[in-house]
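Q: A reviewer asked whether we had any structural model of the full assembly, not just the individual parts. We don't, so I'm hoping you can provide one. Inputs are below.
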Amino acid sequence: MSSVAAQARLWYWQRISAMVLALFVVVHLATIAWAVRGGLSGAEILARTQGSWLLAAFYGAFVIACAVHVPIGLARIAEEWLGWSGRLANAVAAALALALAVLGLRAVYAVIA
Amino acid sequence: MSDNLRVKVWRGGADGGFSNYEVPRQASQTVLDVVTYIQRRLEPSLSYRFSCRVGMCGSCAMTVNGVARWTCRTHVSRVVDGDSLEIAPLSNLPVIKDLATDMSGFFDKWARAKGRFRGSTTRHDGFARIEPDSPERAAANAGIECIGCAVCYASCDVVAWRPDYLGPAALNRAWTLVNDVRDAERLERLRAVAGDAGCHACHTLGSCSERCPKAIEPTAGISGLKRMAARRAMRGEL
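A: Here is a predicted structure for the entire assembly that you could use as a starting point for your response.
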């Protein structure tokens, strides 16, 4: 994964996932700010999230966007600040992407199912 | 004016240090005037570069009070800190001696970015007809005045962090050529400047655009290269 075209594609997906995250984070924060008015319990949250296809889709997409954006960013930071080679940074990033996707989707499933 | 400037000047190689000199202050004095005074009157063994001394050639670029500048175009009154001046060689380049750096790495990166024109016509073909206000020519013209002084390169943090990063000057030159419709190697050049050693490593920190003495904006050209390269890469053409 060291060809110039592959690096350009990673950059592109980093930008696309950033756009997705910018929108999703705003929606997420706005929803929380609105939902916690008057207090909010765990049971009340689960009553809303369980069985909700909309929330499953939204937060599932959120997790995927994170799993794309975070590892690419960290790989570049590792190259610039820790002096890691591109190969090492990308390998660790791929593992991190998998971990974030699995952990994140598990978490989404836990509140949706 | 009878005040003296207290001037620290880098002496030696990378493992050198600052030496102190007192230089009489004068009206409309430039930093190059100060360096020249030191070499002529105080320290004959001081090594430094200059040429035109009128802000055209870019040879006199040095780090003045922490900022890369053309010393012939920098009035002491603009940058002096009280009565102190600190003059060092350009950053991000190996120091040969005192204020002179080894620019060969800078120009090697220019070559790696394919920063040279490759035509496909001969003298027997007609003139190329280029509309001066076509978007591509306007984009090329915006960056065409670069004289390779390395102020942008010395100011770039990414150059400091990534030894293989081509840098703003090489990428700006590549941008002017990628926009030159007469050039026959535009796609190869795009390949040469894309990727993590090329335009995609730029974080748009902006020191290059802020400090370019020719008011060129390498960040604009690099953004253009990013867009071009990403588009081509996603279409499988890169």
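A: Points you may want to mention in the reply: The CA atoms of residues 25 and 63 of chain A lie 11 Å apart. Residues 4-35 of chain A form the longest helix (32 residues).
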